[in-house]
């Protein structure tokens, strides 16, 4: 007769003190500041296309190629970064990534050849930013929160826009008044300054400080380090790639990256400059996009906790595509009300797609969702990389960016249709019905 071992009783969460703010919110705040500091570099590429073209005589396609390498590595590193965080901890990976960003940005001040731009701006900064991309936000959210995940995802996603808001006007002023090299040094110092905050304040898991995740009723022990990070990352990709849902999510997010980081963030400032607008004015408009991006992304996280994420994605992509089709008619030497409307509207929609996309990853792929989202983010950055390069080539060939705006608008319409095709899991349908 075999004996059965009684099931272990669930570990109850330590009683929380009333009125005390949960530690998870402090971790989220440190994560927000970290992503904001690293986002300084995301403000720089569009400001340097014309100065590098004038100083070194490099074509916009060549400069766009460096941006393309950076964006591609940003995405392709992200899924491995999520697995590395499981193996070595969030704090170590993020501190190392910030150091690499500072190194790559700082070394650009001594470059004299295009391959050095590819090495510093493309390879080093691409690897650094990719190691703490949105997969960083996803990992923090999954470990520290069981409630309010949509809202927290929106807040952390908005951190990148906040960095753009803080640094873009400053960097554009530095470039115009003092040359591009002091701007690159400013970015390096901003990334390096965040490292002490990460090392002293960030913690890898709630169990490290003896608390349960926010909203959890039971204490969650810290899992042991996961070995074989690369093997696990590729294994998750192999499993996810067998589903149509993964390819639909990857395809829509590739178009998202193409129409934001690859298109507007890289080419909006030089496009407005082509129409006679001062660089500082165009950069300020791009910074305003960052202001409303914060509002739109946090609101999108709130909506994602309450509404069907597939429909949210379809609406976001459809409206974005429509706005891009009108953009060529709005470009000009001065700021006017229709352009301001476009800036506000595009800002609200900029990365509002992230919370519903991450929610769909959680719904479809469970505990592997952070790594799967890392691969989906890789597609986002590959799409951004393609358009960053082709946008520069189109400007060299056609003398304007018009064809790029129209093509991107059409792609966004296709993404809206793709979002509606994603199937809903039975458990998700039951949850939506109960809520």
> Measured on Cα atoms, how large is the radius of gyration?
22 Å
Uncertain regions spanning at least 5 consecutive residues = 1-11, 13-18, 426-435
Number of helices: 18
> Strand count, sense and closure of the main sheet?
none
Number of strands: 0
**N-C termini distance:** 47 Å
Order of helices and strands: HHHHHHHHHHHHHHHHHH
Structural class, from helix and strand content?
mainly alpha
Shape descriptor: globular
Q: Residue-averaged pLDDT, rounded?
A: 81
Beta strand %: under 5%
Helix content: over 70%
Give me the secondary-structure topology.
Blueprint lengths: L22 H16 L6 H12 L3 H29 L1 H18 L6 H18 L2 H11 L4 H30 L1 H22 L27 H12 L3 H16 L1 H14 L4 H26 L4 H18 L10 H13 L4 H12 L3 H30 L3 H20 L4 H9 L1
Helix pairs in contact: 1-6, 1-7, 1-8, 2-3, 2-11, 3-4, 3-5, 3-6, 3-9, 3-16, 4-5, 4-8, 6-7, 6-16, 7-8, 7-12, 7-15, 10-11, 10-15, 10-16, 10-17, 11-12, 11-16, 12-14, 12-15, 13-14, 13-15, 13-17, 15-16
Walk me through the structure.
- Mean pLDDT is 81; it is low at 1-11, 13-18 and 426-435.
- Helix content is 75%, strand content 0%.
- The longest helix has 30 residues, at 149-178.
- Helix 6 runs antiparallel to helix 7.
- It has helices at 23-38, 45-56, 60-88, 90-107, 114-131, 134-144, 149-178, 180-201, 229-240, 244-259, 261-274, 279-304, 309-326, 337-349, 354-365, 369-398, 402-421, 426-434.
- The chain has 435 residues and is mainly alpha-helical.
């Amino acid at each position: 007769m075999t004996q059965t071992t009684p099931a272990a009783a669930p570990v109850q969460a330590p009683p929380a003190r009333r009125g005390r703010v949960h530690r998870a919110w402090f971790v989220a705040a440190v994560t927000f500041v970290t992503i904001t500091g690293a986002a300084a570099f995301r403000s720089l590429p569009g400001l340097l296309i014309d100065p590098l073209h004038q100083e070194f005589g490099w074509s916009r396609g060549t400069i766009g190629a460096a941006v393309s390498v950076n964006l591609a590595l940003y995405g392709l590193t992200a899924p491995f970064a999520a697995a590395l965080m499981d193996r070595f901890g969030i704090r170590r990976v993020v501190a190392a990534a910030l150091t690499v960003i500072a190194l790559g940005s700082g070394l650009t001040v001594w470059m004299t050849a295009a391959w050095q731009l590819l090495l510093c701006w493309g390879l080093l900064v691409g690897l650094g930013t990719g190691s703490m991309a949105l997969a960083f936000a996803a990992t923090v959210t999954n470990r520290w929160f069981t409630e309010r995940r949509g809202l927290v995802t929106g807040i952390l996603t908005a951190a990148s826009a906040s960095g753009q808001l803080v640094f873009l006007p400053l960097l554009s002023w530095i470039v115009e008044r003092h040359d591009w090299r002091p701007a690159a040094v400013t970015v390096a110092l901003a990334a390096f300054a965040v490292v002490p905050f990460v090392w002293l304040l960030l913690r890898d898991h709630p169990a490290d400080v003896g608390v349960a995740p926010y909203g959890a009723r039971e204490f969650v022990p810290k899992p042991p380090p996961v070995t074989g990070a690369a093997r696990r990352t590729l294994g998750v990709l192999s499993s996810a790639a067998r589903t149509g849902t993964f390819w639909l999510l990857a395809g829509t997010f590739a178009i998202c990256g193409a129409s934001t980081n690859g298109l507007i963030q890289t080419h909006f400032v030089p496009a407005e400059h082509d129409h006679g607008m001062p660089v500082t004015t165009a950069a300020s408009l791009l910074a305003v996009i960052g202001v409303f991006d914060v509002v739109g992304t946090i609101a999108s996280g709130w909506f994602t906790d309450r509404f069907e994420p597939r429909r949210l994605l379809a609406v976001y992509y459809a409206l974005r595509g429509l706005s891009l089709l009108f953009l060529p008619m709005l470009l000009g030497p001065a700021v006017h009300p229709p352009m301001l409307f476009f800036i506000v509207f595009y800002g609200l929609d900029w990365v509002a797609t992230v919370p519903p996309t991450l929610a769909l990853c959680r719904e479809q792929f469970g505990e592997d969702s952070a790594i799967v989202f890392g691969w989906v983010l890789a597609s986002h950055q590959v799409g951004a990389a393609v358009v960053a390069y082709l946008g520069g080539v189109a400007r060299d060939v056609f003398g304007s960016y018009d064809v790029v705006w129209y093509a991107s608008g059409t792609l966004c319409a296709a993404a809206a249709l793709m979002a509606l095709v994603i199937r809903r899991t039975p458990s998700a349908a039951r949850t939506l019905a109960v809520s």
